[in-house]
């Protein structure tokens, strides 16, 4: 019925009414037809997120799920500057905060899991389609998603790479793949996804052993809704590392304030214990060589 931003809008409306408002600030909009498939479905993107990948990978066979470790990592201003400083000058200017964090985590996680160099690694993530207007195209809605739309309006683009390339190439390679996949999402992309759903019978996203799912909820602000009792202590995912049966598959990016009062991003992560040791080592290298000048200029 609704995605995270739609749920946030619903909770905001209920909290306003609970505090005595006669109507919500943003009235709800139905408009479900905007994301329906075309009369003649014709997907026009590759949609690798719905690939049908046969067989198992060496990575999947090596997952010791009986010995998992879970840790949380805080990324504040220094850490974000350190990640950005590892990019090419051009990409430092073009990449968003999500691009650099997602690229960094994907690469560190791949190094930590130590898959075969030919294994295919996938990063699948949620992109909000609201505000992603395109110029008018034939039989495609060009107005975009209206304010107040609370239904599902997200895409699941995927960045794909061979493990060897992801581990050996500079960080800019991973970040560029993330950015390219994210930037594909538009109203035309959403229409293409709806068309694919019709033609292929609503397939589920591809989740091979090399898939990592990342969901950014730093802007959802579920902790900001006051129902008349004051702001909540916490609002967000109940399980921060995905499915209990596959805890290594997913992570959330959560808004967090550390003990020093610094706002940043918390990344709960679950991995097999040997891989977690390597992941911690990768994260520990983040601030190595970072100068105060770097922090000041980026």
State the shape: globular
| CATH class assignment | Alpha Beta
Helix and strand run? HHEHHHEEEEHHHEEEHH
Q: How many domain modules? A: 1
- The CATH topology turns out to be Chloramphenicol Acetyltransferase
| Mean residue pLDDT | 85
User: Looking across the biggest beta sheet, what order are the strands in?
Assistant: 1-8-7-6-2-5
**Alpha-carbon Rg, integer:** 20 Å
Notable characteristics:
298 residues; two-stranded antiparallel sheet; CAT-like_dom_sf; acyltransferase activity, transferring groups other than amino-acyl groups; 10 helices; globular; transferase; Benzyl alcohol O-benzoyltransferase; single chain; 6-stranded mixed β-sheet; Chloramphenicol Acetyltransferase; alpha/beta
Report on the structure:
- The protein is α/β, with parallel strands linked by helices.
- The protein has one domain: Chloramphenicol acetyltransferase-like domain (Chloramphenicol Acetyltransferase, 2-Layer Sandwich).
- It contains ten helices and eight strands.
- The chain has helices at 4-18, 58-61, 77-85, 89-94, 97-113, 163-168, 171-183, 187-200, 273-284, 292-297; strands spanning 68-75, 120-125, 127-128, 154-155, 158-162, 211-216, 250-257, 263-272.
- A six-stranded mixed β-sheet has the order 1-8-7-6-2-5. The chain has a two-stranded antiparallel ribbon with strand order 3-4.
- Strand 7 (250-257) and strand 8 form a beta hairpin.
- The chain starts with a helix and ends with a helix.
- Residues 135-141 and 291-298 have low confidence and may be disordered.
């Amino acid at each position: 019925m609704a995605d995270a931003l739609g749920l946030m809008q619903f909770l905001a409306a209920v909290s306003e009414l609970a505090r005595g408002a006669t109507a919500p600030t943003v009235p709800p909009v139905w408009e479900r037809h905007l994301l329906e498939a075309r009369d003649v479905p014709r997907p026009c993107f590759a949609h690798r997120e719905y690939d049908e990948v046969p067989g198992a990978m060496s990575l999947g066979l090596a997952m010791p799920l009986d010995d998992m470790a879970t840790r949380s990592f805080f990324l504040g201003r220094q850490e974000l500057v350190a990640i950005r400083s590892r990019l090419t000058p051009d990409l430092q200017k073009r990449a968003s905060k999500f691009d650099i964090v997602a690229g960094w985590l994907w690469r560190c996680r791949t190094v930590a899991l130590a898959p075969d160099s030919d294994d295919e690694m996938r990063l699948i993530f949620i992109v909000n389609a609201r505000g992603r207007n395109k110029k008018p195209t034939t039989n495609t809605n060009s107005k975009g998603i209206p304010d107040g739309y609370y239904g599902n309006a997200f895409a699941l683009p995927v960045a794909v790479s061979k493990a060897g390339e992801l581990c050996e190439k500079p960080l800019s390679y991973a970040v560029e793949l993330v950015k390219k996949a994210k930037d594909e999402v538009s109203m035309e992309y959403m229409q293409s996804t709806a068309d694919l759903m019709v033609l292929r019978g609503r397939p589920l996203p591809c989740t091979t052993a090399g898939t990592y799912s990342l969901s950014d909820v730093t802007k959802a602000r579920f902790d900001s809704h006051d129902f008349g009792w004051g702001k909540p202590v916490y609002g967000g995912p109940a399980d921060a590392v995905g499915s209990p049966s596959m805890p290594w598959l997913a992570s959330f990016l959560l808004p967090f304030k550390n003990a020093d009062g610094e706002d940043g991003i918390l990344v709960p992560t679950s991995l097999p214990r040997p891989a977690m040791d390597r992941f911690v080592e990768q994260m520990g290298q983040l601030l190595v060589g970072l100068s105060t000048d770097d922090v000041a200029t980026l």
